[in-house]
Amino acid sequence: MGVKVWENDMIGVLAESDPFDLSNRDTIIINKQDSLQYFIKIISQPAASFPNVKTVTGFYSDLERWGFEDDYRLTDFERKNRLREWLEDRLFVFKVEKRFGFKSIFWTPISEI
Questions:
Q1: pTM for this prediction
Q2: How many of the other CB atoms lie within 10 Å of CB of 96?
């Protein structure tokens, strides 16, 4: 599986649920590995070589270095709500990488603002 990394820093925020999105996808989910996963909306102007992608995927493990701790004893709803509250007022500066073989584009966190 290959990896493509865009070296330009991007800025993003927690994606909001789109009432017109018929997939009814939540912006924070608990994946098959029982780990929090979330979607970041890119709000900066990407490089010309960047694909037409508006959101990227982040994982709980990306946030541990900034002090977010998941409490697995809580219900799924409580875990997602805690993460939403922690993320909702933050800007993130990050690089984006695409792991070939996956449909999603993942972000590599640089820092938070």
A1: 0.79
A2: 25
